């Protein structure tokens, strides 16, 4: 029982700071997406491809969360995107306080969009509010079509699901219809975007989604 | 600081129960492997393929850890393997107490080998001792070749790495030599097994590894 109590306190403290972050984001006029997935589902690659397509149109930045290395930050920065790397050490998810501290070192001025790339983990990041406007989950086809049932909390938390690596569908056992049906049950109003960062298929719909979200938030 | 203290207490309590589990496993003469990976790297599929190959030779059982569903247990049980499913709810890893409780309902008698399939997570399960003899990590090629650097704790904890889905190498960006070199740095004495559960390539070496571990443990 002690552990549960501690977790509740941690979540409560987290939510208070997340609310501050959210206020700050609103004042600055930046739309913030918490991007989550298993390790290797394609979060950073999606951001690289997004940078290529949104360059000169919607100025955006990235906060990267990883246990170790600045590898992801370097990949994103190579596309001219302002980026800040948080190393969590052994931490399995980002929390609102880490984002709050990061914002002391990251200039939001002039940005319309901010991605927070969470630690690769289909469990722990789900319930930690960072102050984002929305959460986007990436599921890649090699992970298998049973994931919505096996990791229900994450799928419940994310109104937008990107199914990535659809170019691998001929080579992996992944029933797209099954996943669509499972996700519809969990998120009846949710959005599913199917794409491949490798071939570019489906990327237009992703970019349109971002344009739409940013323009609604500016209004 | 409070959080760190709590985590240390939790780990200490966990280790005491893990020691009890380890004693129990030794007395029963069963060799226990904690099998870990990201979601969808192929833990359950590897166990299914192992069941096909070890049938009638080495009697083994499986304890499954998942947030939700008994889907993995059903897949393994279909191969005639005794299996027990633990549902962790929101829990991001198995702990020694869950295994301790599971053993009240799981007959080890006559088994020579027990797999504990942990929750799909490349972070949190790493440091929780369950009482196993060894830890095996699966990395699948679609996850990318940067994982040893980005999830160092998990790679440090596992003396044996299975690189799965090598049949997908022609279709995904994954530099096998790079991963071998990274892992050699983290685990100079470690073992790397490269295989495909789909095509069966490399499965013989995995089965030989299991035979060897079990026969050493019986001696």
Which features would summarize this protein structure in a list?
homodimer, 219 residues, alpha/beta, Rossmann fold, seven-stranded parallel β-sheet, 8 helices, 7 strands
Quick structural summary:
By secondary structure, the first copy, chain A, is of the alpha/beta class.
Write up this protein.
Two copies of one chain form a homodimer. With 219 residues, chain A is an alpha/beta fold. Chain A has a single domain, classed as Rossmann fold, CATH 3.40.50. In chain A, 41% of the residues lie in helices and 18% in strands. The first copy, chain A, contains eight helices and seven strands, in the order αβαβαβαββααβαβα. Chain A has helices spanning 2-28, 43-54, 71-77, 96-102, 147-150, 152-157, 176-186, 203-218, and strands at 31-37, 60-66, 83-87, 113-117, 134-140, 160-164, 191-194. In chain A, strands 3-2-4-1-5-6-7 form a seven-stranded parallel sheet, sandwiched between helices. In chain A, helix 3 links the parallel strand 2 (60-66) and strand 3. In chain A, helix 1 (2-28) packs parallel to helix 4 (96-102). The radius of gyration of chain A is 17 Å and the shape is globular. The interface between A and B is large, with 37 and 37 residues.
The average pLDDT score of chain A comes to 95
Strand order of the largest sheet of chain A: 3-2-4-1-5-6-7
Question: How large is the share of residues in beta strands of chain A?
Answer: 15-25%
CATH superfamily of chain A: P-loop containing nucleotide triphosphate hydrolases
* CATH class wording of chain A: Alpha Beta
Oligomer: homodimer
Largest sheet of chain A: 7 strands, parallel
Low-confidence region ranges of chain A:
none
Question: In DSSP terms, counting alpha (H) and pi (I) runs of 4 or more, how many helices of chain A?
Answer: 8
Molecular shape of chain A: globular
Strand segment tally of chain A: 7
- Gap between N and C termini of chain A, in Å? 46 Å
Q: How does CATH name the architecture of chain A?
A: 3-Layer(aba) Sandwich
Greatest chain-chain contact: A-B, 37 and 37 residues
Order of helices and strands of chain A: HEHEHEHEEHHEHEH
**How many domains of chain A?**
1
């Amino acid at each position: 029982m002690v552990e549960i109590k501690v977790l509740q306190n941690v979540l409560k403290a987290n939510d208070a700071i997340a609310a501050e972050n959210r206020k700050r984001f609103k004042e600055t006029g930046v739309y913030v997406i918490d991007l989550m997935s298993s390790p290797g589902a394609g979060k950073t690659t999606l951001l690289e491809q997004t940078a290529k397509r949104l360059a000169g149109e919607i100025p955006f930045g990235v906060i990267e969360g990883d246990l170790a290395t600045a590898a992801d930050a370097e990949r994103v920065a190579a596309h001219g995107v302002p980026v800040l790397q948080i190393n969590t050490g052994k931490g399995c998810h980002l929390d609102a306080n880490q984002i709050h501290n990061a914002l002391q070192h990251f200039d939001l001025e002039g940005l319309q969009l901010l991605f927070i790339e969470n630690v690769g983990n289909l469990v722990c990041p789900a319930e930690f509010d960072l102050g984002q406007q929305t959460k986007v989950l990436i599921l890649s086809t090699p992970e298998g079509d049973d994931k919505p049932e096996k990791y229900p909390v994450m799928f419940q938390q994310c109104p937008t699901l990107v199914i990535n690596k659809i170019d691998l569908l001929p080579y992996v056992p992944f029933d797209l219809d099954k996943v669509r049906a499972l996700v519809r049950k969990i998120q009846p109003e949710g959005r599913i975007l199917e794409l491949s960062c490798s071939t570019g298929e489906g990327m237009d719909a992703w970019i349109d989604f971002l344009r739409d979200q940013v323009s609604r938030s500016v209004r």
